[in-house]
Each structure stands twice: as C-alpha cells, then as structure tokens.
Task: structure prediction
Amino acid sequence: MSKQRYNIAYITGITLVATLGGLLFGYDTAVISGAEKSVEAYLIRPLGLGALAHGITVSSALVGCIIGGIISGFFSSRLGRKRSLILAACLFLLSALGSAFPETLFFTRGEPSTGLLVMFNFYRIIGGIGVGLASAIVPMYIGEIAPAEIRGRMVSFNQFAIIFGMLVVYFVNWGIARGQTVEWINGIGWRYMFASEAIPALLFGALLFLVPETPRYLALSRNDDKALKVLTKINGAEKAKEIFCDIKASIGTTVKAKLFTYGKRVIVIGILLSVFQQFVGINVALYYAPRIFESMGAAKDASMLQTIVMGLVNVVFTVLAIVTVDKWGRRPLLITGSVGMAVGMFAIAALSFFNVIGVSTLVFIIIYTASFMMSWGPICWVLISEIFPNRIRGRAVAIAVAAQWAANFLISSTYPPMMEFSGAFTYGLYGLMAVLSALFVWKMVPETKGKTLEQMESIWGR
Result:
C-alpha cells in the first residue's frame, strides 16, 4: 500500500488559504502591542482614566472574540464553514479601517472624548468577532478537510499562521515607529498600524472563493454528491467512498444531536483545554511585550527589536510542533510544554521579586514562550478541532472557543492592575497554572493521534 493516498498539493493549498484566517487572528490581536501606548496617550490619559480603563481598552477586542466564539457554532452550522470565514474576512476589514480612523462620521480628529474611546473600542470589538469566528472555524475547517494521518500537522499550520501574523505585525509596527518621534507615533503612526490589517483581510476574503466547503458539512447538509466529490479530489475515488460511508454512519439518520449525547466529559475537557491555554498567561507576553521589555530597561527601539526576536523564536518552536504532533502525539507535547512554561514563569517571578533586570529575564521569557509554542499553542487547537464527534462539533467548538476568549479577556484585562500590586505574584500565578495544566492533561485528556474524526465517537461512547 502506498504511504501517501491523498492529494497533498490540493490539501496544502486549501490549508494555506484557510490559515490566512489564523494570520489575521494573530495580526489583529497583536497589532495592539505596538499601538497600545499611543492609544493610551491619545485617548486614555487626556480623559483622566487609569490602569483599569487602559487594560480594558487594550483587551476590548477580546469581548468581540467571546461573541465571535459563541456565535461561531450558529454560523458554521447555518452558513457553513466557508461562508462563515468570508464573513470573518469582512469583519477584519471593517475593524482595520475603523480602528485606524475611529473619528469617521461622528467625531473630530484630534479631540479625544469618551464617545471616541467607545467608538474605537467598538471597532476593535468588530475585529474581535472576526477573530472569534476564525479561531473556531479555521481549525474546524482544516480538521474536516485533512486526512487523519496528517490532520495534526495541517491544523498546527493554523497556529504557525497565528504566530507568523504576530511576527509580521511586530515588523510592521517596528517599521512604522522606527526613526519617528513619540509625538508622530502618538498622533499618526498608530493609525497606520491598525490600517495595515486591511491588506491581508482583502486577500483572505478573495481567496476563500477558490476553496471548497468541507465534506463533513456537506454531508451534514445532505449534499452527498458534493461531499463525495470533495473527498474524491482529496483522497482518491476508492478511499473517498470508504470515508464517505464512515461519515454517513457517524451522522446516522438524524444530523442533529443533543450537546451531551456523548457525555459531559468531552465538553468539559474541551472547555478546560481552552481555559488552561489562556490561564498560563501567554497573551500577556504577546500583548504587552514591548512594555515588558521597556520595564526591564530597554529603549523604545530595542524593546520592539526584542519583541521581534521573541516572535522569531515563537515561529521556530511552532514549526517543531508541526513536525512532531503526528509522530509523538498530543499528550507528550502538552505535558512537556507545561513543564517548560512553569520553569520560565517561576524564574521570571523570582527575578521580579528580587528586582533583577537583564538578559536573564529575556532568556526566561523566551523559554516560556517557546514552550508554549511547541505545545499548548498549536496542540490545543488541534484537539479542539478533532475531539468532538461530527454531530455536535459546531456547537461544542463554539463553547470551547468562547470559554477560551473569556479566559483570555480575564487574564489580559487584569494584568496591568495585578502588576501594580506585585509582579512576582502575577508571574508566579501563571507558573502555577502551567503546573495545573500538566496535571489536567495527564489525568483527563485522551490521545487522538492517527484517529479519524469518525472514530472520536468510540473514545467518548454514546
């Protein structure tokens, strides 16, 4: 038997188009890292608002992410995976232009007001809804397209795209700010940072018209001929018929099932995977990276460069996860990453407690983020895309992703006031969460390497 029965070129092309949604996910969530100090200077401080308002504004997009995650199940089930991603692309475009020019239609440029702050946050929330939709549906889309043997690798490309999107925007932000005065950046530069997202948003929306709907969704929608056609193009005629029969058997006579048809455990595991991915504190490092490095004594340009170094490390270790996830399995990578994150965060907490600032702090931040990127970053999305049986996947993924963004919002918005209280306590808490995440995987998460989506039912039972 041939080792490769599937059309890898076709699958890769579809995956690359879908992962532009992941790139926009990373781009949209990380663009604030270069602009947040300017937004604070332009909108927060002139209104006499403090750390809590700043934290909420920096993470306001996460409110939209929660909404997008919640409604992703409805849209992916009603519109389909593909058309829901087209909707997400439109939201990304609107948010990019609106966040850059929030005064449009209602306010005067250069005159900060509470209403303008609300409007800025509104556009960031619109982008967040796009992120929430993409974060749920892109892994689901790839997972329902890719053969079981390479599903982990293909879904992990989404995390690579997320991190690559963050790295791209770090370069874009650095390029915009490089050589400019603080006054120019606070007045105009931050607008260019947000507006730059319009380019990948337009590209994503256009390319989505060239890819198919997933065969699982087509089968759920009773479009059997189209489902078989897509499966044939991916797997070849003989294998396509076998997979199609398995899909139809998993669906049964009714395409809808109650959420807890396969028990509560699978839903709880999906939620806890999402919550732990955020409670380890990764987005604090991503959103506030330049500020963290400046607090360690780095100059403005140097802090941006250190952020880029961190982004490059993230890309390298995400690639490590991509090449090992279908060989080593999901559980070993998650547990190894948890241990590395705990080491990094506890070390940063100790350095913060003793007020040690230097290269050692940067080293442990890199150890921490590298550990996340080779484990919980991509593997959490892989598991969320594959652990749920076909008939409940859309709704179950929506619940898990909504929980993830709620946890993200809680961690990100509380970071500034927690740091005012104690840096050592803050980083130590994230380290403790890393330890608990390892115990959770060891005790509760099953190995899914090499199993088809239709075989997930046998893991959970009816």
Summary: The mean pLDDT is 85. The chain has 21 helices and no strands. Residues 218 and 226 are 7 Å apart (CA to CA).
